[in-house]
Recover the amino acids of this structure.
């Protein structure tokens, strides 16, 4: 009878595990990868003593590794390794009245309440749209990709449809393309295309390459024009699908995700550090209020749009049902 083979047990890590355990990154970068804010803003919060690392106030330039504990805004996190082998990117058609934030003290609806739930990951918004701006919002589980898409050095184009009150002369358009002074520095439109002009209002397609707060609205405001409608229809090489209804979302396939990474100069994803929330933390209950735009009536069955909806947006959307709905990965209404 031959001797039975024995299985040797060892506590030695494999090469890939050892590499992951030795991975360390700057604290503010890890916080940004987890979608807790921009790197610059997070550095300021660290400097102000608002972030704790392993029970002590964190300092600027601190590095973290897997297993470290972090506290921010009274919430506890554990640093973990993300291989990003299954990173996802969502296209979300943001409706009016929804905030691009995780929580709102006033209980207003937020984008993150509408998204598919994840296990072991979290959605990171690629920039923000203000409460009155609608249209394309990208969200991803890959913090590096999100930061690359938002960073000014990437020069990623953002295209918007906007309705401006009044008749805009050609001289104003040339001035906005050449550049004007805003409170936070000079800014300009990279491109302006006229859709329609009238005595009461005009429609334009505009392109910018920065993501400063309310930049499109402030550019028009600098010339004395009020933007009454604003909708983002493109971010980089990703366009808002015409058939995607407001409040719904769709998932980019693997090929489109890779094309998006290539578009911002990123190669194959490498392991990085992110944050995993500590489970069973107590949280205050939130009373979410449903948002109803004022002055809008029930959509008519034959149009599927609110009365008074601008035909320029209607022509672009071609939506059957324009009422805000909970986001899901496509498919017919339930």
């Amino acid at each position: 009878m031959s001797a039975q083979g024995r299985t040797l047990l060892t506590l030695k890590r494999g090469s890939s595990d050892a590499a992951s355990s030795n991975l360390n990154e700057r604290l503010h970068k890890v916080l940004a990868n987890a979608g807790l804010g921009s790197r610059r803003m997070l550095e300021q919060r660290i400097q102000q003593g608002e972030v704790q690392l392993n029970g002590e106030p964190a300092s600027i330039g601190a590095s973290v590794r897997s297993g470290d504990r972090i506290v921010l805004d009274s919430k506890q996190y554990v640093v973990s390794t993300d291989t990003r082998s299954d990173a996802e990117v969502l296209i979300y058609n943001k409706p009016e009245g929804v905030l691009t934030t995780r929580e709102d003290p006033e209980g207003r609806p937020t984008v993150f309440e509408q998204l598919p739930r994840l296990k072991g990951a979290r959605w990171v918004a690629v920039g923000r749209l203000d409460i009155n701006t609608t249209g394309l919002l990208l969200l991803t589980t890959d913090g590096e990709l999100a930061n690359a898409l938002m960073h000014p050095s990437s020069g990623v184009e953002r295209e918007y449809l906007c309705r401006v009150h009044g008749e805009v002369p050609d001289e104003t358009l040339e001035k906005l393309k050449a550049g004007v002074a805003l409170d936070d520095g000079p800014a300009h439109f990279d491109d302006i295309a006229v859709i329609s002009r009238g005595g009461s209002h005009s429609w334009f397609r505009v392109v910018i390459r920065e993501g400063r707060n309310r930049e499109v609205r402030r550019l028009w405001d600098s010339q004395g024009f009020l933007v009454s409608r604003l909708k983002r229809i493109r971010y980089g090489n990703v366009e808002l699908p015409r058939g995607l209804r407001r409040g719904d979302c769709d998932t980019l396939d693997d090929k489109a995700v890779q094309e998006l990474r290539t578009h911002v100069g990123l190669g194959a994803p490498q392991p990085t550090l992110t944050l995993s929330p500590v489970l069973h933390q107590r949280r205050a209950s939130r009373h979410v209020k449903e948002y109803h735009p004022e002055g809008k009536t029930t959509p008519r069955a034959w149009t599927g749009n609110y009365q008074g909806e601008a035909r320029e947006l209607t022509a672009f959307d071609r939506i059957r049902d324009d009422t805000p709905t909970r986001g899901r990965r496509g498919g017919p209404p339930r």
Notes: The chain has three domains: 20-82+272-277, 84-155+237-268, 157-235.
